Recover the amino acids of this structure.
């Protein structure tokens, strides 16, 4: 494959997907029908704890991120797991239709799950829009904008005096003199080739 980074040119936004019990950052979101209650699709990596939560619940929400979003929200929902951390404790949320939406976002869409489609790495969840609101008319954050500004949005903090390897996809930090040959990121699943040595 010559350069798969071209997929970053696909026009898509950045969102916080939430359901009962947790949530995560997502970018693969699309409106797939029209009408008063359009269908919204969102793909979630199977390795994510949120994937299990989505399968266990019938309601989910998508909060639309703007370019002015507090970077801590991206770090909170993109680089931590609800398995061992309550992502909602340090973020302003509002409950709508039984799920949390992010107050600092541009607005939200709440959907009732109507279908699921499985592939090798992700589950595509399809929901019918049942509630929505707009908080702000700010500029929405695209996936391309996120990739271009990731170093500013997701500042990596490492422990002084230790050798750190940073995942260039999600920002996870591995400490050690070298990465094992078969190492995979525990957050996003990419191999060691996607890690970069962090210079203090």
């Amino acid at each position: 494959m010559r350069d798969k980074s071209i997929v970053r040119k696909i026009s898509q936004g950045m969102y916080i997907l939430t359901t009962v019990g947790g949530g995560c950052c997502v970018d693969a979101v699309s409106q797939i029908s029209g009408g008063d209650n359009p269908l919204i699709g969102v793909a979630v990596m199977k390795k994510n704890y949120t994937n299990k939560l989505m399968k266990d619940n019938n309601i989910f929400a998508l909060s639309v991120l703007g370019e002015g979003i507090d970077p801590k929200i991206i770090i909170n929902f993109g680089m931590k797991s609800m398995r061992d951390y309550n992502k909602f404790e340090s973020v302003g949320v509002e409950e709508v239709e039984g799920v949390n939406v992010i107050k600092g976002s541009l607005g939200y869409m709440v959907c009732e799950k109507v279908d699921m489609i499985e592939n090798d790495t992700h589950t595509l969840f399809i929901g019918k829009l049942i509630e929505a609101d707009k908080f702000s008319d700010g500029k929405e954050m695209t996936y391309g904008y996120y990739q271009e500004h990731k170093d500013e949005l997701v500042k990596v903090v490492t422990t002084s005096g230790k050798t750190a390897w940073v995942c260039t996809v999600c920002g996870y930090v591995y400490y050690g003199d070298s990465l094992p040959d078969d190492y995979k990121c525990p957050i996003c699943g990419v191999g060691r080739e996607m890690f970069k040595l962090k210079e203090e």
